[in-house]
Amino acid sequence: MLMMHINQKMSLILLLSFLYFRQVIFAQVLPLDPNEAAVVRQIATTLGATLKNPTDDPCQSKNLFVTQTYAIGTEFKVIENNITCNYNDGTFSHVTHIKLKTMSLQGKLPPELVNLPFLQEIYLVRNYLSGGLPKEWATMRHLNKLSITATGISGEIPKEWGNFPNLTHLSLEANQLSGTIPKELGNLVSLTDLILSSNQFVGSLPKTLANLTNLTDFRISDNSFNGTVPEFMGRWTKLQRLEMYSSGLEGPINPTIFALGNLIDLRITDMIGPQFDFPKLNYKNMKSLVLRNLNMSGSIPKDIWDMGVRKTLDLTFNKLEGEINSITTNTDFIFLSGNMLNGTIPDSIIGSKKNNLVMKGCWVDILCVSDNAPHKISIGNLYGRQNGTTNQPRES
Ligand SMILES: *[C@@H]1O[C@H](CO)[C@@H](O)[C@H](O)[C@H]1NC(C)=O
Ligand SMILES: *[C@@H]1O[C@H](CO)[C@@H](O)[C@H](O)[C@H]1NC(C)=O
Ligand SMILES: *[C@@H]1O[C@H](CO)[C@@H](O)[C@H](O)[C@H]1NC(C)=O
Ligand SMILES: *[C@@H]1O[C@H](CO)[C@@H](O)[C@H](O)[C@H]1NC(C)=O
Ligand SMILES: *[C@@H]1O[C@H](CO)[C@@H](O)[C@H](O)[C@H]1NC(C)=O
Ligand SMILES: *[C@@H]1O[C@H](CO)[C@@H](O)[C@H](O)[C@H]1NC(C)=O
Ligand SMILES: *[C@@H]1O[C@H](CO)[C@@H](O)[C@H](O)[C@H]1NC(C)=O
Ligand SMILES: *[C@@H]1O[C@H](CO)[C@@H](O)[C@H](O)[C@H]1NC(C)=O
How far is Cα 191 from Cα 39, in angstroms, rounded to an integer? Predict the structure, then answer.
């Protein structure tokens, strides 16, 4: 009893001293460099924000004090208005991170950002901006993460963007960007993430991208690229996630790409090209495998069930055939319709709750199984009924 009392007292003292310590640290945040403070005000104006109180120090307040920040819809409620000043020179703080998400900003991307020389990260997500990507940004020495996602910007990627000295993450997803990918992007050898999905890019992927061997995440879905899937992707040995839903590129897909040893998430859909047999894959880490509408033939190898794709397996709208008798419960979601498969679904699967959900989801032709359904189900012959571009589920 006494011991407990002492412990509680101790905890209270610890808590209080922790709070006090935090206060002290907070109080020690140095004021923002006056030059940068002027730049931040300029940036706010260019972005279309109105500062509530222009003399507020964003390093102290940790945000851009703007009037009227409201969410675009109930779906995207999360507003992020976050300025971080993680670097100081003993006299002043310097802005290192800017994150502005779902703030309904209606201006342009500010070229003035280059006057924040210690900036490491720009994250502008879900705003209503216009105009294009400022070519000046590429001079920012410390910038390593750049995400401009769903903001409405248009135009081409400036060729100057091949000059970023230290960029590791470039995401331009879901904008109205167009034109070809400049060959200069192949200079960004530190890139680990390159995300260009959902734009209007055209042309083929430049050969220089072969040098991006640090890539772990490459996504080019929903674009109008042309030409074949470049063989050099098979040399991106660190690649973990490759996403090409309706990219516009054509087959054949080099077998070395399928065989990449670190793939966790491989999604390729809606691609024309010569017919090919089910490829050899490395299932060691595979979480999601989506190979939909690719003119793939032959039978599904048994090791796909043995080794297990953990979450999603979607092989719909190909020309796969043969009997499937070895489906296991290792995979959460299995989609096989639009092929010429047949076979028997084991009782163990029909009895398994998580897989029942899938069957009831109507995306498989082992679909819509009710609790009293027969345990022997045909895996249909739906090939040709749909061409795979209909509203299939897409999870991220
Ligand atoms: C603001 O951004 C910094 C740096 O990215 C991060 O450490 C911090 O958690 C963020 N704060 C909020 C409230 O999002
Ligand atoms: C380059 O980025 C890395 C992190 O990706 C960082 O550790 C390093 O300090 C950066 N270099 C410069 C010059 O900013
Ligand atoms: C991978 O990135 C590091 C820096 O992050 C860089 O030093 C190295 O040259 C890159 N590797 C290649 C093959 O470009
Ligand atoms: C690919 O697209 C580019 C740019 O739109 C075009 O110039 C080229 O002719 C196209 N190539 C093929 C093979 O269609
Ligand atoms: C890759 O980089 C090397 C050296 O940096 C260069 O010589 C080579 O031309 C580049 N490859 C391609 C395909 O651009
Ligand atoms: C599928 O492959 C065959 C044979 O290689 C080819 O003739 C056909 O055009 C291909 N179909 C598609 C949609 O790519
Ligand atoms: C399944 O289809 C294959 C041809 O794809 C056929 O040889 C086999 O007899 C069929 N099995 C059943 C049970 O219908
Ligand atoms: C197949 O897709 C094309 C567009 O990609 C569409 O015009 C056509 O209606 C589709 N056909 C069927 C049967 O869904």
Answer: 28
Ligand 7 atom closest to residue 299's alpha carbon, by position in its atom list? 5
Q: What is the pLDDT of residues 218-249, one digit of tens each?
A: 999 999 999 999 999 999 999 999 999 999 99
Sheet holding 200-203, edge to edge: 154-155, 176-179, 200-203, 224-225
Mutate to test the pocket of ligand 6, among 229, 246, 271, 275 (most ligand atoms within 8 A of CB): 275
Distance 168 CA to ligand 3 centre (A): 10
Residue 241 contacts residue 196 (beta carbons within 8 Å): no
d(CA 207, CA 181): 11
Pairing of the two strands 87-88 and 93-94: antiparallel
- The candidate with the shortest Cα–Cα distance to 303, out of 321, 320, 266, 328, is 328
What span, in angstroms and rounded, lies between the C-alpha atoms of 371 and 168?
A: 50
DSSP 244: E
Q: What does the pLDDT read at residue 321?
A: 85
| pLDDT above 50 for 66 | yes
Query: Does the C-beta of 210 come closer than 6 Å to ligand 5?
Result: yes
Q: Is 389 in the pocket of ligand 8 (CB under 6 A)?
A: yes
SS3 115: helix
What separation in Å is there between the alpha carbon of 165 and the centre of ligand 3? 11
| Band of pLDDT at residue 48, cut at 50, 70 and 90 | confident
* Ligand 5 centre distance from Cα of residue 186 (Å): 8
> How many CB atoms are closer than 10 A to CB 77?
10
- State in Å: Cα 289 to ligand 7 middle: 25
Probe target for ligand 1 pocket from 84, 86, 123, with the most ligand atoms within 8 Å of CB: 84
pTM above 0.85, yes or no: no
Answer whether residue 65 shows pLDDT above 80.
no
Q: Is 214 in the pocket of ligand 2 (CB under 6 A)?
A: no
**Residue 376: is its pLDDT beyond 80?**
no
What letter would DSSP give residue 137?
G
